[in-house]
Design brief:
mainly alpha; Tetracycline Repressor, domain 2; 2 domains; 0% strand
């Protein structure tokens, strides 16, 4: 008779499966990875992963959801710990770059991969929205203190696009190591000067 799995058993296997899938998805691309290969990575029968996830898209959505939530938590925590609008903006930028280079596989799957059926996963949609909101919150701080003016969503998008571009270029070996770390400060300062509230 099969052993009855506890919630902890289920959570542990799901986490191990997602860890293996994340690595293989980045190395080979999701299309080149099979459920059978994932089962082999964990030393279980080919049908075992189906007890925990419907299919590969389900696994990918779980990985990306977890990634967006962890990313948002890191940026939210950095913002909460800093004092003053400028310090909050700098802390968010630093947390962004730190997360990207500490979790490069997760970062790539979060942002560099299109999942056409994303809308089928409400938790993924929620987590992605939460991550986007971290790009607006620090700008709201700047506006509230009279440091910056303009549309927070547009300003946040400019910052996000710029830093993401630096991160991806450095990850691809197109920029020297440490460039994103140095340049995100310059981007923030330049944005701040160009969007400074007029007295």
């Amino acid at each position: 008779m099969p052993r009855v799995l506890s919630e902890a058993d289920v959570a542990d296997f799901r986490e191990r499966l997602c860890d293996a899938a994340e690595r293989l998805f980045v190395e080979r691309g999701p299309d080149a990875v099979t459920m059978r290969q994932l089962a082999a990575e964990l030393g279980v029968s080919p049908m075992t992963p189906y007890r925990y996830f419907k299919d590969k898209d389900d696994i990918l959505a779980a990985i990306r959801t977890n990634g967006f939530d962890r990313f948002a938590e890191a940026l939210e925590r950095a913002r909460e710990r800093a004092t003053g609008a400028r310090a909050k903006g700098a802390a968010v930028g630093q947390a962004y770059v730190d997360f990207a280079f500490e979790h490069p596989h997760t970062y790539k799957l979060m942002f560099d991969l299109n999942q056409p059926i994303e809308g089928d996963y409400p938790e993924l949609v929620r987590a992605a929205r939460r991550a986007r909101e971290t790009m607006t919150a620090w700008v709201e701080d700047q506006k509230a203190e009279g440091v910056m003016q303009g549309d927070p969503e547009q300003i946040g998008l400019m910052f996000w696009s710029s830093v993401h571009g630096l991160v991806v270029l450095e990850m691809a070996g197109k920029l020297p190591p440490g460039t994103a770390q140095r340049m995100h400060h310059t981007i923030a300062q330049t944005l701040g000067k160009g969007l400074r509230a007029q007295s």
